[in-house]
Specification:
Number of helices: 4
Number of strands: 27
Distance between the termini: 71 Å
Number of domains: 2
Helix content: under 10%
Largest sheet: 17 strands, mixed
Structural class: mainly beta
CATH class of the largest domain: Mainly Beta
Strand content: 35-45%
CATH architecture of the largest domain: Sandwich
CATH topology of the largest domain: Jelly Rolls
């Protein structure tokens, strides 16, 4: 192994079944043998029911699961995951390394996590429940340490956004090209106990002590009630590394909590602190629905918009600590733009995380964020076309 702490080459320290190397994506691949030195910019592939373990000269490790496609850029110090699942583990006493996977770009210093790039079900013109192989979801989780970076995504109007990323142990992120990235907590102890990226290798990770400490901390937090599921993972069970197509479909279409009504258009605000967050809706005619004006009849009496569930932050709507505000539009809505947004009316906290989910005509939009006292979120916009 080279003595310099760089990413110019890696050694294949363990393999199972089919592992191949190629100079680039279009070149012919050749079988890899354990102990082989792999140069930067080479492409490493694994087959079905296959694993590969790589170790770089700075002792950074990359573990590839089945059907993975992996490469790296030594000059940029970037590990690149094109498909499949890869666990990364980096000692704290070497320089930062970039992780690049789909829309996700982030830096690790001394930490361990995983990334999985998988097809999304039901994308493409056929919409027959099968992936067309082009629309991919990126799933990123942390076992120990911290990860910081950014995610690119596009909204329903095809406008591109960049959202900051900051994950710690037990955090998981799902980034899709069609919705805002979403963060939740996964079952960290179960992952460490059962994942093939941990259990499928003969040698322990160099960061094993830090992982064990993070697992113990997670268990203590869970026992104290600090580990909570999100609206799209209410069971509290883990999201496995190789997320199924069915699970990805569910992640992309989050459910509303059973608080408030449904309607033709629905917006629901969810948060978990004692702050007083408020949900607003601005109608195409300029009228606004909120706690200040809870019901409006419009479109010549053919439609009504109502804040049918309000919360001042001191009422728990869904145990253990979920607060909800819900606005619905019923009847025949006026054509034009409907703008939903969130305002933090009052809080004793530095900021408060929230999720805003909006549905119209079978399409669901979701944004998440953090708001300080008095701050207002970006809007979620629904466009209702003119009637026949």
């Amino acid at each position: 192994m080279a003595s310099g702490a760089d990413l110019s080459q890696a050694r294949l320290i363990q393999k199972r079944n089919v592992v191949t190397l190629a100079p680039n994506l279009t070149s012919e691949a050749r079988p890899a043998v354990e102990g082989a030195l792999i140069q930067a910019d080479n492409v490493v592939r694994t087959g079905t029911d296959s694993l590969a373990g790589l170790e770089f000269s700075d002792l950074t490790q990359a573990r590839l699961g089945s059907n993975a496609l992996f490469s790296w850029d030594a000059r940029a110090r970037a590990l690149k995951v094109k498909q499949g699942a890869v666990l990364f583990s980096k000692p704290p006493n070497s320089g930062p390394v970039q992780i690049e996977a789909g829309p996700v770009s982030c830096a690790i210093k001394g930490s361990t996590g995983f990334v999985s790039v998988v097809p999304i079900k039901g994308k493409g013109k056929a919409a027959n429940g099968r992936s067309n192989g082009r629309e991919m979801a990126t799933i990123l989780g942390m076992l120990e340490g911290k990860l910081q970076g950014s995610i690119r995504w596009k909204d329903s109007a095809n406008r591109e956004h960049t959202t900051p990323l900051n994950l710690g142990p037990g955090d998981i992120l799902v980034a899709r090209p069609d919705i805002i990235p979403r963060v939740a907590q996964f079952d960290l102890p179960r992952f460490v106990r059962s994942s093939p990226l941990i259990k499928g290798f003969s040698q322990p990770l160099r960061n094993k002590a830090a992982i064990n400490k993070a697992v113990a901390s997670y268990k203590a937090d869970k026992a104290s009630g600090f580990v909570e599921s999100t609206p799209w993972d209410r069971t509290g069970t883990s999201i496995p590394i190789e997320v199924s197509v069915a699970q990805l479909t569910a992640l992309g279409a989050p459910e509303f909590l059973n608080v408030g009504g449904t309607g033709v258009i629905r917006g629901q605000l969810v948060w978990r602190t004692d702050a007083d967050l408020d949900l607003y809706l601005t109608l195409p005619n300029g009228q606004q629905i909120s706690f200040r004006n809870v019901s409006v009849t419009f479109n010549n009496g053919m439609a009504t918009a109502t804040l049918d569930h309000q919360n001042l932050g001191n009422t728990i709507d869904v145990q253990p600590n979920i607060r909800v505000e819900n606005i619905v539009v019923t009847g025949v809505p006026l054509s034009g733009l409907y703008n939903f947004f969130v305002n933090n009316f009052g809080t004793q906290n530095s900021s408060d995380p929230f999720t805003l989910t909006v549905n119209y005509n079978g399409k669901t939009q979701v944004i998440t964020g953090n708001l300080g006292n008095g701050a207002t979120s970006e809007p979620v916009i629904v466009k209702v076309p003119p009637g026949p």
